[in-house]
Specification:
49% of the residues lie in helices and 4% in strands. It is mainly alpha-helical. Among the domains are: 1-90, no CATH class; 110-207, no CATH class; 403-522, Rossmann fold. The strands form two sheets. A four-stranded parallel sheet has the order 2-1-3-4, sandwiched between helices. A three-stranded parallel sheet has the order 6-5-7, with helices on both faces. Residues 519-524 have low confidence and may be disordered.
Length: 524
């Protein structure tokens, strides 16, 4: 049996000791062995007399003394063992820490969440095919501190008092700095560590009532600035094409100067919909215009509408502003995020409850609804909204819509890391293969990860992450067949490919809509 039992040590370790002795005694009665796959060690050495006779134990001691007469190697283990409760490291609750996140899987305790990590080390496995997403920064740097395990252990020390400055300790922030908030660990870690969530809470606690980095105010509130810039989007884009003005804008936002600035869409998806869509009072499908699809990458939204309408469905874009607050969440601005998602739940719930499916185009935003709403609000409607907003592949699958013939089409797909980790990319692969495409799914993260990859100080690691899986796969595919379709539903992934490889990636909706309308419609 390989079990993990949590104990409350506020009343001392006595119950822990009694439990272990009772288990070991019963195990002996059944003819079992105390020794596990990792041997006996400190966890079981004191209990060995229950399994071995005195003569065997004396032989152990003789061998140990012969090989280690000065007792330098593993003292207190096997021979002259330390008590099983002598070296415990109980989770100490932080008295003044009141997490903003509900931490629903850990009873509201950041300490319990951090101690999910038991050091298994799957996050430090080499970059093997099919290994999932975790942990992209470790694969780029090879440093233990940049792994999920390294961050979890540092967070444990910040919470139990080992780090003098607690959550504000520079060692903790150095460990968290290269966390991309990709959520790969949330699905790939055997014990369910979700470092993206813990990082958000640490940033919230650290900068509460304190001045934040510039990037938090600008990149971490990008949807707000995009909405304010929408009336002058064309002028703003012209200004950002002027190199000195772009350099000033990047410096003000805390961006690396080597990064390009994403241009604003004009018109926004919602404004375009007001002008062009028919008056379906009760449409068959609602489209949620998330902030990124609305203000930066409207093509997937228009393509999805075209594809759905070609199947005979009535489609309407939800006109209200409804933001998932993802940039606020990843930068730890959680009290603001609570207010934003509260409004979003109230605005999206009536559409979800209407019976018509609601489509989300940006996977990171749909994933934020699925994984973060429940952490930020206890509103019962949040669960309905989280379950009721579908990805494009989920919607097409649910409605069983006809697919264009993709026979002979080679697709290299980079699932957004939140898509792979939270939503699951299986429906997308199934659709593509049903349509006849030959699909290669790129593992890992693209390395941009929203605001993280464009921030000053992250560029080299961002590029190194992209070189782990994505860029080699794309280069190899395009060299073999220049007509290969590079698929990337996430805005981050598409920007990374444009910036580093000069490749225009397509959204699944753009691919299916273009092929449904004929090859000529897909060009450009």
């Amino acid at each position: 049996m390989h079990v993990r039992v949590d104990f409350d040590f506020r009343d001392g370790p006595q119950r822990f000791r009694e439990f272990l002795v009772a288990c070991a005694t019963r195990l002996r009665e059944h003819g079992g062995s105390l020794s596990g796959e990792h041997g006996d060690g400190r966890a079981r050495s004191e209990l060995l007399p229950l399994m071995y006779d005195d003569r065997s134990l004396a032989l152990f001691a003789a061998v140990k003394h012969a090989c280690d007469p000065d007792g330098l190697l593993n003292p207190g283990v096997l021979v002259d063992p330390r008590p099983v409760d002598a070296d415990l490291r109980p989770v100490r609750p932080v008295a003044d820490l009141r997490p903003v996140l509900r931490l629903v899987h850990d009873n509201g305790s950041l300490g319990a969440a951090a101690h999910r990590c038991t050091g298994v080390g799957k996050c430090v496995v080499p970059a093997l095919p099919g290994r999932g997403v975790m942990c992209p920064s470790f694969l780029a740097t090879g440093q233990e501190k940049d792994s999920t395990r390294g961050r979890a252990r540092t967070l444990q020390e910040a919470l139990d008092g080992s780090l003098v400055d607690g959550l504000a300790d520079p060692s903790l922030h150095e460990a968290l700095d290269l966390c991309l908030s990709c959520k790969g660990c949330a699905s790939d870690c055997p014990t369910g560590v979700d470092m993206a969530t813990y990082k958000s809470e640490v940033l919230q606690q650290t900068y509460r009532r304190r001045l934040r980095p510039r990037s938090h105010y600008l990149l971490g509130r990008l949807p707000l600035w995009a909405r304010l810039a929408a009336p002058v989007a064309r002028a703003a884009d012209l200004g950002l094409r002027v190199r000195p003005l772009a350099a000033v804008a990047k410096a003000a936002a805390g961006m690396d100067q080597r990064r390009s600035v994403p241009l604003f869409a004009s018109p926004t998806l919602r404004r375009w919909a007001r002008r062009s869509q028919g008056g379906h009072a009760a449409p068959d499908v609602w489209v949620w215009a998330d902030s990124f699809t609305d203000h930066f990458r409207t093509g997937p939204g228009r393509a999805a509408i075209s594809f759905l309408e070609s199947a005979g469905l009535g489609v309407r874009v939800i006109d209200e502003t409804a933001c998932c607050a993802l940039p606020w969440i990843t930068t730890g601005q959680l009290t603001a995020a609570q207010l934003i998602v509260g409004r979003t739940v109230a605005r999206l719930a009536p559409y979800v409850d209407s019976g018509a499916p609601v489509l989300g185009l940006e996977p990171s935003c749909v994933a934020a609804l699925r994984s973060d709403l429940g952490e930020l609000t206890a509103d019962p409607a949040a669960a309905r909204v989280a379950a009721g907003v579908l990805t494009f592949a989920e919607l097409v699958t649910r409605l069983d819509l006809p697919l264009p013939d993709l026979t002979g089409t080679t697709v290299v797909a980079q699932p957004h890391c939140h898509h792979a980790s939270v939503l699951g990319w299986g429906p997308d692969r199934t659709l593509l293969e049903r349509a006849g495409a030959a699909v290669t799914e790129v593992p890992g993260c693209c390395g941009l990860a929203g605001n993280w990859g464009v921030e000053k100080g992250h560029h080299e690691t961002s590029v190194a992450v992209a070189e782990t899986h994505l860029l080699p796969a794309v280069r190899e595919a395009l060299a073999a067949d220049p007509a290969t379709v590079v698929l990337a539903d996430g805005l981050s992934c598409s920007l990374q490919l444009d910036d580093l490889a000069d490749v225009r990636a397509r959204h699944l909706a753009e691919l299916l809509a273009g092929r449904a309308a004929g090859p000529a419609a897909e060009v450009g």
